[in-house]
Amino acid sequence: MAVNPSGADMKAFLADDPDQPIVMLNLLRFAPGGADRYDAYLAHFRPFAEKVGASVVYFGHGADPVVAEQGQDWDAVLLVSYPSRRAFSEMVRDPGYQEGTHLRTEALVEAVLQPTVPRG
């Protein structure tokens, strides 16, 4: 299961209104010991997010789901507000940011990155 976006993923992502503000929903399933590794990734991530005008809206660990199919529970949820899709793309292309992405990869066995847009 992929935990990082591919080049094709990013091309499709930017094709849909690159200047549109988004809140990126991250659903995270940790590898054994991955929660601490993900904390290290977040410490690396925050300065690069701030550099492009993004901010963490919420980060929390999952509790037992109230309603979910088997396997739909997640270890953590992260919401990050980006001023635009382009800002997200700029961040993930930054060589300094890329130096720390191994922390995220090592922390996770599964992830969903879903851009969301305000409604109304």
Automatic annotation (TrEMBL):
Task: Report the Pfam families cross-referenced here.
Answer: DUF1330
Where the record annotates domain DUF1330, the positions are 36-109
Q: Which InterPro entries match?
A: Dimeric_a/b-barrel, DUF1330
At the top level of its lineage, which domain of life is listed?
Bacteria
Q: What is this protein called?
A: DUF1330 domain-containing protein
